[in-house]
Amino acid sequence: MPAHPRPSPALRPGHGAPRIEFRHSRSRRRPQGNTHVRNAEKRKRVMARSMRLGHCVCNPKQPCPCDTLRDLNVCPCAGERLEGPAEKTVRLTQMVEKAGCASKIDQAALRSVLQGLPEITDPNVLVGMPAADDAGVYRLDDEHALVQTVDVFTPSVDDPYTFGQIAAANSVSDVYAMGGRPISALSIVGFPIREAPDAVLHEILRGGIDKMAQAGVAVIGGHSINDKESKAGFAVTGLIHPARIVSNAGARPGDVLVLTKPIGTGIIAFAAQIGRAPADAVDAIAASMASLNKPACELMLEFDAHACTDVTGFGLMGHLTAMASASGVDIDVIWDDIPLFDGVIECVVQEILPGAIERNRESVAGRVALADGVPPVALDVCCDAQTSGGLLIAVAQDRAEAFLTALHERGVPKAAALGKVVSSGEGRVTLRTRGERVMPQTAETSPATADKTPSADEPCCASEESTQMACCENGHDAGDAAPGGPAELQQMFQQFMKAAGAPGALDATTKQAIAVALSALAKCEPCLKAHIKKARQMGFTQDEIDEAAWLAVSFGGCSVMMFYNTYRRTGAE
């Protein structure tokens, strides 16, 4: 269906692009008023081929007839498309596993993959793959060189138009990081074309083209793939003078390191995926990710910056260590001075940390040290995968203050100096603190829960068994019942229990507290034992468990109180 009317596509700072809700039908009802004209002869021909093969020719993983044909009388292989009533909101971040640049291959794995590939010996390649820089540079003549890069990733926001803008801003950022001027681009998209409305892809492309136009870049073509997970990006070509290349290998002792955007986009995007992010935090990262690094690029050239890289999927520490290694220097970074998005600290306290952090931590292991007083979670934040992050720029110390002032005046208000190059060295980064940014205690470091870590032979993910199923299986022997009998009904009920216990509008912690209370109210000892065990693994204190149970007592009365007190005395938990 067409997009709702919207204001100007320009992204207002701090507000994000206007939101659009796209809807499509996933109903199992037979559609009424499907406006697509069916070609009976074509359907018969295509289905006959599929049925002879025993596989759908559109998707060999499923038989013919497929569920779509049986339930909705629509044959995608014959070019038929469901154009039924709008029934379900499309949230782009819910259609992917990993949001934004967290979807990229991690730095350590990429280094392993690239080992042993053929060397590029063309003398006109000024910056190539071995440099591990942001973009490649190819010399045309003594005055001109091409800067080329490509970047594709999954949605980091739900709004399609905003996602397109972010994809474009992220893609041109690599050209800006080299000091180049982007001039043309080719779009690259992956999209589940039979499952989501065409209007969604239209808006993604429109957002990208509008942002490229803002950068002065012509989108001259592209490539599309029918993909289950949405992806978007651009291959960008720019121009640069061969003598004016700003690589990540030029940092010098004494240089001040300036970061032009806050970090934490990966943490906030992940929190949004699971329904735990404040709306204003999501809007803030959207505005930042969609903003161009063009002013920062122009000013770093004006102030003769020595080195630059943009901060994206490898996280701040990944890009810092790459700069330190390429430049042959050691770097100190001050945790208190690193600009963070609002809401990041709150997410960290609640242990809302995406998996990309772990992969990035492994990639920088051995090259990053934490000085005394730096909280361990600070490294988590510094390893958060960024989408369309800022430029990390090394500038001479005597020009750093004026450079920062110029950035702020040119509309880069969050730019901040976060550290310095301390000496020539082996590419090590030390994270230090003045003690000004105090991190609240997390469940992981709380003394009350420090001894509640599951043992090696007791996997923490066993909760799916113990809390959603096993607590109600004790005493029930399904036996060898025939299909459709008690065994199948019990399995269906267990699946329902698992779905009911999964986090949704209520987060996992809240649901676990409710599970403890309901177990006590039901006076089910196996249930209570399983849910208290899971609550302890999640970091609940005994006081919190008791409070949940006493809520049940307030509803159930004396008999529940006697049941719970007896359970506590026996030490059954």
Short description:
The protein is α+β, with helices and mostly antiparallel strands and 573 residues long. The protein has 19 helices and 15 strands. The strands form three sheets. A seven-stranded mixed β-sheet has the order 10-13-9-14-11-15-12. Strands 3-4-5-8-6-7 form a six-stranded mixed β-sheet, with helices on one face.
Account of the protein in words:
- With 573 residues, the chain is of the alpha+beta class.
- It folds into 3 domains: 26-85, no CATH class; 100-112 and 121-432, Phosphoribosyl-aminoimidazole Synthetase, Chain A, domain 2 (Alpha-Beta Complex); 460-570, AhpD-like (Up-down Bundle), CATH 1.20.1290.10.
- Helices cover 38% and strands 15% of the residues.
- It has 19 helices and 15 strands.
- It has helices at residues 40-53, 67-72, 107-114, 160-177, 198-214, 265-273, 279-290, 294-302, 315-327, 344-349, 356-364, 376-382, 397-409, 463-466, 486-501, 508-521, 525-537, 542-556, 558-570, and strands spanning 23-24, 88-89, 125-127, 136-139, 145-153, 181-191, 218-226, 231-240, 256-259, 307-310, 329-334, 368-370, 391-395, 416-424, 429-432.
- The protein has a 7-stranded mixed β-sheet with strand order 10-13-9-14-11-15-12.
- β6 (181-191), α5 and β7 form a beta-alpha-beta unit.
- α4 (160-177) runs parallel beside α5 and α9 packs parallel to α11.
- The radius of gyration is 28 Å and the shape is flat.
- The two termini are 55 Å apart.
- The relative contact order is 0.10.
- Mean pLDDT is 80; it is low at 1-35, 84-88, 443-470 and 473-482.
